[in-house]
Amino acid sequence: MTSDAAPADRPAFAHPAEEEFARLLDFYGIPWQYEPRTFVLREDKEGRPVVAFTPDFYLPEQDLYVEITTIRPKQVRRKNRKIRWLLEHHPEVNIKLIKRSDFRQLLAKYGLAGPDLPPWAGADAEADADD
Q: Each residue of 8-17: pLDDT tens digit?
């Protein structure tokens, strides 16, 4: 799915944070694609995929994949491991992981944060100082 799709044709985002990120990209006129490619990271002995990774967004003008995560900091290890495996197999791929704290900062930078910050953006930020 690309950013030039009509609102009715928007993808069914897996998480509200992805939808918010897409709106931000649209607002600034940044072309994007939603989950356009799945990378096989591990295969079994017969060559069948056993671990794969599909980054959330691809920004073609920047040649950049973006993965959004709002999970707790201690659970980010799994995402980091998949990104590390991705880069081992595809060193030419540019990818950025946007963690919950990064997303909060992004929302604040563009005036979208405040007392009504959604729970997925980490409204309980004081309790999560380690992210």
A: 578 999 988 8
CATH topology of domain 7-128: Endonuclease; Chain A (3.40.960)
Q: What are phi and psi for residue 23, nearest 5 degrees?
A: -60, -40
The residues spanned by each domain of the chain are 7-128
- Residue holding tokens 């880069």? 87
For the chain, the average pLDDT equals 81
The pLDDT score that the predictor gives to residue 125 is 38
- 9: tokens are 């044709």
Task: From residue 124, give the alpha-carbon distance in Å to each of 70, 120, 129.
Answer: 12, 9, 10
Of the candidates 75, 94, 98, 74, the one whose C-alpha atom is nearest the C-alpha of residue 86 is 94
| Listed residue (28, 20, 18) closest to 58, CA to CA | 18
User: How far is it, in rounded angstroms, from Cα 64 to Cα 10?
Assistant: 20
Using only C-alpha atoms, what is the Rg of the chain?
A: 16
Could you tell me if residue 43 is left (phi over 0), alpha (psi between -120 and 50 degrees) or otherwise beta? Answer: beta
pLDDT at residue 72 in the model? 73
